[in-house]
Design brief:
about 230 residues, mainly alpha, about 90% helix, about 0% strand, rod-shaped, disordered C terminus
């Protein structure tokens, strides 16, 4: 029997067909049903294998995805831990930054106070500088006046020195003339008498100056000058 016969006698309800068919028809129908069942079984088995392969692929993909998910989860946990540590470090840095900002604010306040003090000191220094400049100008004028007076004094000094030199020259000439003509004076008798009288007078004069409480008149009476002794002897 061919495929058409198998197809002819294969019906879903072959039991009904067997009730009014002959043995040959029943055998043909049973064989056709078995062939069709085997074909369906092979088809179902093929589909099952295909689905199993797809399920294995899906399972492998799911396993791979789960592994990747676990890796991603571990990476996410590590990133979260790193982010938490970074956040804690950021909080610590922020606290330190706040502390530094507070210190900088204090330093800025101190700097402003120091700048104010420096400005006041600069103002005082400028006033003092102005006063010193005025005083220096006054001193300079005074120095110029003193220099002018000094120049006049030096000029007067030069004139005085010139006059002194002239007087000294005249005095030297007088002394030289006196020495040259000393033997012609009335006071000269001889050198011994002259120097004795001069020495006597110098001693008495020195006693009067150095010992004012001393009675020099008694000494003069006790030690008369040489010329007085000569007069008494005569």
């Amino acid at each position: 029997m061919g495929a058409q016969a198998v197809k002819k006698y294969f019906t879903p309800k072959w039991e009904e067909f067997s009730s009014h068919g002959d043995l040959e028809d029943v055998l043909e129908a049973s064989l056709a049903s078995a062939i069709r069942a085997s074909t369906l079984q092979m088809k179902v088995l093929g589909e099952f294998r295909t689905r199993m392969q797809e399920q294995k692929k899906l399972a492998a993909q799911a396993s791979k995805a789960d592994k990747e998910h676990q890796q991603a989860l571990e990476g996410l946990r590590a990133a979260l831990e790193s982010a938490r540590a970074a956040y804690e470090q950021m909080e610590a840095d922020l606290k330190e930054s706040d502390s530094n900002l507070l210190n900088m604010t204090k330093q800025l306040d101190n700097a402003n106070a120091a700048q104010k003090v420096a400005a006041e000191a600069l103002e005082v220094a400028n006033k003092e500088k102005k006063r010193l400049l005025e005083e220096a100008k006054s001193r300079e004028e005074e120095i110029l006046g003193l220099r002018s007076e000094l120049a006049k004094a030096e000029s007067s000094k030069k004139e005085a020195e010139d006059g002194k030199m002239e007087v000294e020259t005249r005095l030297a000439n007088v002394e030289a003339d006196f020495v040259a003509n000393f033997h012609n004076t009335e006071a000269y008798t001889n050198f011994a008498d002259y120097f004795a009288r001069v020495g006597h007078q110098e001693v008495l004069t020195a006693l009067r100056n150095d010992y004012p409480e001393l009675d020099v008149k008694n000494l003069e009476a006790r030690f008369p000058p040489p010329d007085a002794e000569g007069e008494e002897d005569s």
